[in-house]
Amino acid sequence: MAASLRxxxxxxxxxxxxxxxxxxxxxxxxxxxxxLEIEEFGGTAWLGVVPFEMRDTRIWxxxxxxxxxxxxxLNLRTYVRHGDxxxxxxxxxxxxxxxxxxxxRQTFALPYLxxxxxxxxxxxxxxxxxxxxxxxxxxSFGAPRxxxxxxxxxxxxxxxxxxxSLEHFLTERYSLFARRGFGVPRSLRGGLVRGDIEHDPWPLxxxxxxxxxxxxxxxxxxxxxxxxxxxxxARELKVRAFxxxxxxx
Length: 249
What we know:
The protein has helices spanning 98-108, 166-171, 216-219, and strands at 9-23, 37-38, 45-59, 71-82, 85-95, 112-121, 131-137, 147-154, 175-179, 192-198, 204-214, 230-241, 245-248. With 249 residues, it is mainly beta. It has a single domain, classed as Acetoacetate decarboxylase-like, CATH 2.40.400.10. Strands 1, 2, 3, 4, 5, 6, 7, 8, 9, 10, 11, 12 and 13 form a 13-stranded mixed β-sheet that branches. Strand 4 (71-82) and strand 5 form a beta hairpin. It is globular.
């Protein structure tokens, strides 16, 4: 259990936007390990694109690492189950910190990729409240280049997702799964691993988004959804992450 371990990473997720689209489960099956069940809600699987800023990142027991404390991040994900544990499967995680990309690939076996990114909080009369986010993947580690450009903002009061609701299904996930491969310690290669996290319930708010460029689906080998996304916003959440452990072949 995570509670018996010491958290290995402390971080704050800030100005996060959940963008979600329904997608047929069969469209994802070839991209997710067979040992993981792709979960559905409302008769469909879900894809999420999540831009946010990572703040105050600390890796225990190391001192503050230059280039690792603050940086934007963007991920593409879906929702899975292994046994009785629900979690997240990441197709990609783009970050502007080269240090963070390499630490995460080595430690958690996650498909982090280098990107040029910016996050700007609008202050002008025409931009007040909007968070402008852009990402251009550099093509590191043999991954195809991909881009995201848009802006988002909250447009209502906090309304945390109630258990059993779609919002709760999409956001209250306390495990991530990954497949160990090349570039990680030999003792951890070749298996399914799980990393657990702890945090308070998400302080969700309804939100709006204006997208200018979004080709994260294309570069992952997925068709881009035609409909507009379901959008939620969270201002800030403190998170503790625990060391990954092997849970399957």
